[in-house]
């Protein structure tokens, strides 16, 4: 329910007053116009009902006159034509803009692709330059290290050079002493060579004398060789006879070998038989052992039987005595 006497008519009057003044008939404005009375929900409900009634009146064509209807129709037709022309114009502009934007977009994409390609090429060049720079830095560091090593090596070489100079001076001194020693050695070698030459001449004379003696010995040896050749001929003849004899001996040896093979086969057969006999002998030994065991067992059995027979005889005698005593006992009782 509305509070403070607020009703639909008051709200409608306040709304029309605000519209006539050119103000927006909002809920707050109407409430102020009503003297800040009534709840906003009530004012909102009345406003909604009033606007629905006004809309229903405007939509009802029966409330409009014929000229107004024709005017509204013409206005609607003109508005539709203008709207259609505006729509077509805007569509044409839009299509042109779309084509322009598409072309521009394609140009931008091509430019972007070219830019990307250029950027990639620049990046590759940059990588190459950076790689070369790193290589240059590494080479520079290597050169610095090599220069440092070279300086150290130079210092060492300077020290070695000083040492070598001292060694050269020492070697020159030694070389001078060596030259003097060499001169002395050459003189001593010359003297030694002269002595060796004299010794050689003496040895040659001795060798010539020995050669003459050897020639004499050689003539004697040649006579001996002639005799040896004769002896060799005789030995060759004897060797031929010996070879014939050896051939006969080899034939006999082959025969003996054949006989030996036969004897070997017989020996193998005899060994086989001997092995069988050994097996039989082992079995006989086993049988002998068993026989001995049986004889021992038999002897033990005979002894046991003798003992049993003795015990049986003793027990039989005892039984006979007991029976005799038993038979005598009734007679005594009678």
From TrEMBL:
Transmembrane segments: none annotated. Residues 171-200 have a biased composition (Basic and acidic residues). Residues 170-200 are annotated as: Disordered. Residues 8-115 form the KfrA N-terminal DNA-binding domain. GO terms for molecular function: DNA binding. Keywords: DNA-binding. It comes from the Bacteria. It holds the Pfam family KfrA_N. This is DNA-binding protein.
